[in-house]
Design goal:
By secondary structure, this protein is mostly beta strands. Helix content is 0%, strand content 50%. It is built from no helices and eleven strands. The protein has strands at 16-26, 38-44, 49-54, 59-64, 67-74, 79-80, 83-84, 87-88, 93-95, 100-102, 105-109. The strands form three sheets. Strands 2, 3, 5, 8 and 9 form a five-stranded antiparallel β-sheet that branches. Strand 6 and strand 7 form a beta hairpin. The radius of gyration is 18 Å and the shape is elongated.
Length: 110
């Protein structure tokens, strides 16, 4: 049997936008924050991830479905030993439909 519903409209929820920076923080005294090129990955609470390449200006801009994400990143300019350091957002990134959320991904230098 095939049942057809007449007049049904399926509305999808518009995504939200995340904007921010991939940047350094800390280091020796008087070290300025530095914007970084690299990769940032947003992982949802359901485990789905979205990876994006970040240009030399460090700018993050991505549209994501509503939800809560962890944001991690790395840059070839920031290493721990011989490996690229893993960088993190300070808090979970909460995305709301149709709204812009600000989130920086920070590479903590020691």
């Amino acid at each position: 049997l095939l049942a057809l519903a007449s007049g049904c409209v399926v509305q999808s929820t518009p995504p939200g936008t995340v904007s921010g920076l991939l940047e350094t923080n800390g280091g020796p005294p008087n070290t300025a924050t530095r914007l970084l090129p690299g990769t940032v990955v947003f992982t949802s609470s359901t485990g789905k991830s979205r990876s994006l390449e970040i240009a030399t200006n460090g700018a993050i801009s991505v549209r994501l479905a509503s939800g809560t994400y962890t944001a991690t990143g790395h840059s070839p300019l920031v290493k721990s030993g011989s490996r690229e350091m893993t960088c993190h957002s300070l808090t979970p990134v909460v995305v709301h439909s149709g709204r812009t959320t600000h989130a920086n991904v920070i590479c903590e230098l020691h």
